């Protein structure tokens, strides 16, 4: 295969893409050097911002011809270094694709270009009494294409599902630039569920160029209960009790004392500063239903020893209660030069144990941690506070983070609930999966991308690296329920 | 509601056949002898039939719930466990599967149900098994025992191999264990039946689905629109009240009552209807005339035009709020295929009349064997990707060969 220089590539691209949108100078490229996880930076060979699907298609054909690595990019809010550039590759930004192509209020769907911001969908659907349910905290910025690529979640996913549950259809360009359509306007299709593979595929299987999502009717009413508890354990138990009453809240979030203080200082939401744990429980549905459920949950919290219980009295107050939670990351970020957000999921019953262990590790590493938790579905976001300017501190932070992820796997959970593996958690993949499973992932990738030029080095670790990681000695197979694992190995 | 009883794994009937299953597949892989995976063999019209010379590997001896934690809302069962057994255990805690797959007289297994991604009338609101599977353990065509996903609600590490099994009909591996999300029973449920034409019903179903009501199923059968509402009692009652124009007294009862063109079904009537629809036991499915074939459309729920208008209502059944349509009669397959595509979806020939079979045998359709079905056309790029995926799981090509497509 012939090599191509950046200048030659740039010339070829500018023959069909506006030259302003083919970026090769370091200064303009700088904003693309990282995503939301700024600890990982890399300058790409080129950044290109096509404006039409045909341009993306031609660009991909060109990249494929020269086997140039391609990193698709939406809004760059990934927290796993999924959109970090490849130094010999191209950043393919979908930022120009911001059109809402069609909203069908009768069928309750929206057809979108990949660069449409998550929040913009609900804003546009509102006039029809509809909204798009998955609501990542980054929803003012993140793109629907990035949401599909990460299978993003949000505070309302407990009741309304993740991105994968709310996407009907996508159009995608393969690495060779072939345009395909996966899914349909119906609900299930004959054959293998490729749509399920694309959700959460982190830009490694194709470039998503159009998405059709489901819209839901806006609930008549939503109300939030804000409850303080004097221990994380009590709050954790309360979460289990709400759900076992047969009530599925629209959202059920928890914060620890450190996160409460940070969020309160930031948002003035009226959070109880003396509480060790805070629960935010949103109930939605019809007027009567919400009224009845709110009453029931508030009483339950009180009975279980909540130190304070407040119920939002109007929409402004509801928004205010959420504001603290939704701005928890930047709020915690203000307390420290840098923070590092983890994303493990655990069985809810393990919460107290896991938080105790995290506290122990926090002392061991001498790094502070604030915990924000999608409590209803067991998705934990410990935020480790550190200072990147202190030599060695990021490395220490990363190691601490890695220990938290291993802990999650140890109790039967996983290393990432919604942020993806990216570059960041690639080593911990070896904790959650054995070599045969990882080999199977590589084979799935080759089914789409035989030359592995789509977002190379992300998501799935090289087998050699897994072995190295495990041989560091910190790793032992901690996976629960490994009853048959040895059998599998023997037979393989 | 009674308090939740946590069971320990020893409470469950244990019947672990994993090693045997691994051995059988490993042996088949070594000898390159194709096999057929079978749960309870309740499958019928689905997919292609497989060469009956291929040896059967059955999950029947691999059954039992392995883990069920009502507070976590997660249950893990061996693939050969019947949905009936699962229902019974969940019901002890007033819980149920988070969706409503066909039970087929209690015979359907969780493995076969996920492999075929069966979903009942509540599909648009409660989702399918594909939506609620959290993790699977599977033996691929090399005899490797692999675990994907987990027992937690959210997991985006690696590709979603668990969901990929939904609809793959066992062509990628034999699933041995499946973890799914479960939910508490809805506290109340009411079904309203209204005499309406199909055209009116399609329009009403879509309108209603766009409003914030606890709608949980909407189907039109034989001149009646059936609407099921489930959830908090007050919400269910309100929804029903506004449908029958406020004439119902607020009290929720189990008896059936009539109002103008509407009727509130008794709990028993409602339960019978939805079960029969879900498990395809209604007359519509069973009384096919000799020259009638049965087609299944998965399409845009609002689909309605001259074609649908011109075919007698009696030939149709609309489920999933309009997104699933059944049509019986003697039709030209190409025409139906065009119609499905025009409405953003696809059609499969579900049961074939003799006449249709003779006609099809002269055409270039994708079908084989006795359980012949005609499939939606497949894009060549997608066919290539699916073939690659198949080969990645089953390089020796021994698992359910020809089941999904003649080339898979
Ligand atoms: C403050 C903050 C809060 C957050 N809260 C949440 C949260 O609550 N829930 C949650 O799930 N996430 C959250 N995130 C993470 C992030 O916002 C999501 O992962 C989001 O889905 C990323 O979207 P993006 O458009 O920014 O994608 P990018 O960061 O640009 O890209 C992410 C990945 O998607 C790929 N990609 C992007 N577009 C395409 C495309 N069109 N085709 C193929 N691949 C593509 C990229 O290659 C990359 O691998 C948060 C992030 C921040 C900074
Ligand atoms: C009256 C009637 C109507 C039906 N209508 C429909 C319909 O409309 N739509 C529909 O999709 N199905 C339909 N079916 C088929 C049936 O729904 C499913 O096949 C059945 O629910 C699956 O359960 P089973 O245990 O009998 O699986 P089986 O019938 O034994 O197997 C079903 C498929 O799954 C595979 N399989 C089974 N177990 C596993 C496993 N552990 N790992 C991997 N693959 C496995 C098998 O190889 C086979 O391809 C109908 C069946 C009947 C009797």
Automatic annotation (TrEMBL), chain A:
Transmembrane portions of the chain = none
Q: Where is the FAD-binding PCMH-type domain?
A: 40-218
Task: Specify the superkingdom.
Answer: Bacteria
Give the UniProt keywords, A-Z: FAD, Flavoprotein, Oxidoreductase
Q: Can the keyword Methyltransferase be found in this entry's annotation? A: no
Gene Ontology molecular function: any one: FAD binding
Looking up InterPro entries in the UniProt record yields: FAD-bd_oxidored_4_C (IPR004113), FAD-bd_PCMH (IPR016166), FAD-bd_PCMH-like_sf (IPR036318), FAD-bd_PCMH_sub1 (IPR016167), FAD-bd_PCMH_sub2 (IPR016169), FAD-linked_Oxase-like_C (IPR016164), FAD-linked_OxidoTrans_Type4 (IPR051914), Oxid_FAD_bind_N (IPR006094)
Q: Which residue stretches, if any, does this entry annotate as coiled coil? A: none
Cofactor(s) the protein requires to work: FAD
Pfam families, alphabetically?
A: FAD-oxidase_C, FAD_binding_4
Q: Can you name this protein?
A: FAD-binding protein
Organism annotation: Colwellia ponticola
Automatic annotation (TrEMBL), chain B:
- What are the FAD-binding PCMH-type domain coordinates in residue numbering? 4-185
Q: Does the keyword Flavoprotein apply?
A: yes
* Keyword Calcium (UniProt): no
For this UniProt entry, which segments traverse the membrane? Answer: none
GO MF: FAD binding; glycolate dehydrogenase activity
InterPro entries named in the record: FAD-bd_PCMH, FAD-bd_PCMH-like_sf, FAD-bd_PCMH_sub2, FAD-linked_Oxase-like_C, Oxid_FAD_bind_N
Q: Please tell me which top-level EC class this enzyme sits in.
A: oxidoreductase
Provide this UniProt record's keywords sorted from A to Z. FAD, Flavoprotein, Oxidoreductase
Q: What is its EC number?
A: 1.1.99.14
Instruction: Cite the PANTHER family for this sequence.
Output: D-LACTATE DEHYDROGENASE, GLYCOLATE OXIDASE SUBUNIT GLCE
User: What is the recorded name of this protein?
Assistant: Glycolate oxidase subunit GlcE
Source organism of this protein record: Colwellia ponticola
């Amino acid at each position: 295969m012939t090599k191509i220089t950046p200048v030659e590539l740039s010339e070829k691209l500018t023959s069909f893409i506006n030259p302003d949108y083919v970026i090769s100078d370091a200064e303009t490229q700088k904003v693309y050097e990282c995503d939301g996880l700024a600890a990982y930076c890399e300058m790409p060979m080129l950044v290109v911002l096509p404006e039409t699907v045909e341009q993306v298609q031609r660009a991909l054909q060109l990249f494929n011809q020269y086997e140039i690595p391609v990193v698709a990019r939406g809004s760059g809010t990934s927290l796993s270094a999924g959109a970090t550039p490849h130094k010999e590759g191209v950043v393919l930004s979908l930022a120009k694709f911001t059109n809402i192509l069609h909203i069908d209020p009768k069928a309750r769907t929206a057809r979108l270009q990949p660069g449409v911001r998550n929040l913009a969908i609900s804003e546009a659907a509102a006039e029809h009494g509809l909204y798009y349910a998955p609501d990542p905290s980054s929803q003012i910025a993140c793109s629907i294409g990035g949401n599909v690529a990460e299978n993003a979640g949000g505070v309302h996913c407990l009741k309304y599902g993740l991105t994968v549950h709310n996407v009907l259809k996508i159009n995608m360009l393969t690495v060779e630039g072939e345009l395909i359509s996966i899914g349909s306007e119906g609900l299930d299709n004959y054959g293998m569920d490729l749509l399920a593979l694309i959700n959460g595929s982190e830009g490694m299987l194709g470039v998503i160029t159009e998405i059709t999502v489901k819209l839901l009717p806006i609930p008549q009413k939503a109300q939030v209960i804000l409850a303080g508890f004097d221990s994380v354990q009590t709050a954790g138990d309360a979460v289990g009790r709400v759900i076992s009453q047969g009530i599925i809240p629209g959202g059920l979030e928890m914060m620890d004392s450190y996160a409460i203080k940070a969020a309160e200082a930031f948002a003035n939401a009226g959070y109880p500063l003396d509480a060790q744990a805070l629960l935010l429980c949103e109930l939605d549905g019809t007027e009567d239903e919400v009224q009845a459920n709110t009453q029931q949950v508030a009483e339950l919290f009180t009975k279980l020893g909540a130190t304070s219980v407040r119920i939002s009295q109007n929409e402004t107050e509801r928004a205010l209660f959420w504001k603290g939670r939704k701005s928890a990351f930047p709020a915690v970020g203000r307390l420290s030069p840098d923070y590092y957000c983890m994303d493990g999921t655990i069985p809810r019953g393990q919460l107290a144990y896991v938080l105790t262990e995290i506290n122990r590790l926090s002392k061991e590493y001498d790094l502070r941690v604030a915990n924000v938790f999608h409590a209803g579905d067991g998705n934990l976001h410990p935020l480790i506070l550190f200072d990147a300017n202190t030599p060695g501190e990021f490395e220490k932070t990363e190691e601490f983070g890695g220990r938290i992820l291993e802990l999650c796997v140890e109790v039967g959970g996983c290393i990432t609930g919604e942020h993806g593996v990216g570059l960041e958690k690639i080593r911990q993949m070896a904790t959650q999966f054995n070599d045969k499973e990882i080999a199977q992932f590589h084979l799935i990738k080759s089914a789409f991308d035989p030359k592995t030029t789509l977002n190379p080095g992300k998501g799935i670790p090289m087998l050699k690296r897994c072995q190295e990681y495990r041989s560091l000695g910190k790793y032992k197979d901690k996976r629960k329920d490994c009853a048959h694992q040895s059998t599998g190995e023997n037979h393989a | 509601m009674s308090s939740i009883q946590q069971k320990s794994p020893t409470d469950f009937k244990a019947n672990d056949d994993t090693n045997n299953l691994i051995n059988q597949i490993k042996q088949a892989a070594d000898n390159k002898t194709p096999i057929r995976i079978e749960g309870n063999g309740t499958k019928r019209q689905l997919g292609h039939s497989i060469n009956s010379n291929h040896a059967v590997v059955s999950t029947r001896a691999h059954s039992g719930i392995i883990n069920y934690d009502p507070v976590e809302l997660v249950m893990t069962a061996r693939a050969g466990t019947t949905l009936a057994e699962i229902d019974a255990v969940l019901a002890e805690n007033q819980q149920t599967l988070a969706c409503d797959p066909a039970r087929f007289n209690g015979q359907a297994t969780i493995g076969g149900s996920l492999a075929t991604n069966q979903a009942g009338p509540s599909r648009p609101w409660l989702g399918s098994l594909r939506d609620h599977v959290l993790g699977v353990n599977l033996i691929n065509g090399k005899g490797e025992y692999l675990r994907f996903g987990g027992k937690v609600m959210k997991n985006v590490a690696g590709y979603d191999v668990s969901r990929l099994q939904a609809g793959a009909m066992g062509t990628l591996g034999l699933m041995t264990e499946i973890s799914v999300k479960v939910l508490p029973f809805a506290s109340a449920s009411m079904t309203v039946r209204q005499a309406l034409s199909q055209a009116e019903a399609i329009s009403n179903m879509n309108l209603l689905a766009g409003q914030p009501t606890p709608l949980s199923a909407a189907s039109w059968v034989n001149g009646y629109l059936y609407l099921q509402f489930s959830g908090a009692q007050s919400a269910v009652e309100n929804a029903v009240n506004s449908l029958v124009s406020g004439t119902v007294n607020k009290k929720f009862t189990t008896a059936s009552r009539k109002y103008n063109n509407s009727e509130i079904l008794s709990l028993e009537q409602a339960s019978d209807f939805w079960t029969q629809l879900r498990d395809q036991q209604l007359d519509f499915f069973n009384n096919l005339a000799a020259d009638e074939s049965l087609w299944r459309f998965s399409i845009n729920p609002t689909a309605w035009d001259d074609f649908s208008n011109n075919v007698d209502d009696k030939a149709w059944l609309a489920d999933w709020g309009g997104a699933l349509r059944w049509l019986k009669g003697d039709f030209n397959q190409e025409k139906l295929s065009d119609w499905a595509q025009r409405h953003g979806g696809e059609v499969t020939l579900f049961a074939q009349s003799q006449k249709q079979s003779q006609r099809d045998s002269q055409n270039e359709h994708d079908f084989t064997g006795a359980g012949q079905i005609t499939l939606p056309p497949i894009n060549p790029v997608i066919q290539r990707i699916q073939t690659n995926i198949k080969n990645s799981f089953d390089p020796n090509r021994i698992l359910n060969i020809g089941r999904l497509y003649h080339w898979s």
